Amino acid sequence: MKAETIPVYLCCDENYVPQLCVVLISATRNTQSKLHFIVLNFELSDFAKNNIKNAACANDVTFVSIAPYVKYFSDFPKKQSHISIAACYRYLIPILDFSYDKGIYLDCDVVVTGDLREIYDFDLGGCSIAGANDFHGRSYLKKLGVSHYFNSGILLMDIGKMRSNEATFKLIKKTIELKDNIKYLDQDVLNLFFAGDSKILPTRFGVVSSVFRKNVSSSSIPKAEIDRAIYNPIVVHFTGPDKPWVIPYGVVAHPWTPLYFSYLSKTAYAFLAGDILHNFSPIRCFFWYWKRHLGFFLRPQFYKMRTLYGKNSKKIL
Length: 317
Fold this sequence. Notes:
Shape: globular
Number of strands: 9
Number of helices: 13
Structural class: alpha/beta
Strand content: 5-15%
Order of helices and strands: EHEHEEEHEHEHHHEHHEHHHH
């Protein structure tokens, strides 16, 4: 049973190929099981595909063109610069020509730090989908009318059930219907569509950036679980606009940023690190971050995360 291949679905356009390569090589280095990476894409170049295959090492990679379906995404809203329409390609997973009835989905802005088998073996309990808590406030959950809200960057899916329920075209239709009333595009739609048919994954299966920025809490998640996720994650998700390739170092950099660059150095895009560092302005970034997170210096969590950043820098780099 443990030798079973784990299908990992990803969505990518040409702009996010370097990040995708980081996901693949980090997943490969930390997962003992055989992986099958299924990359939904629109007109990736042969150069990009070759680099992606190399990052997957000995694992299988299948490229699936969404060209026959691209018309369905033409009316989707584009409200936030760090949210790509390409992420919505995941809607197509249930209708793809694969025999898998269960699978993992990963965004391209993640780095895998543990064995994906732990996520794959999680008991869905009959639900169609599961994702880690996004730690939105109660007001946002109330606005959407949901009891819990999961982040869509790391998902465990009962693909067989989703296929039986014809989820693909229902999700596309719902996105178009709600396009003027949603903030986080497909993530909002997935939470609404699967309300009552979803579970929350353990926090360490998909740790979002807010967990590192502030002292988050949840009535349904013990503090010990959140603390364990910070220091011993399975997948780190660089949510929001402050990605490692946007803030590569400094006092406001994500504490797991060093790991991202460590894996980037093992891909065909290692040369990009120099450009990222050269173009980065720490002073401008500091004031931009201050404006977004007023008073962050006053939070005890800030100093804890600077310590974690320092430890990761020494250990990884």
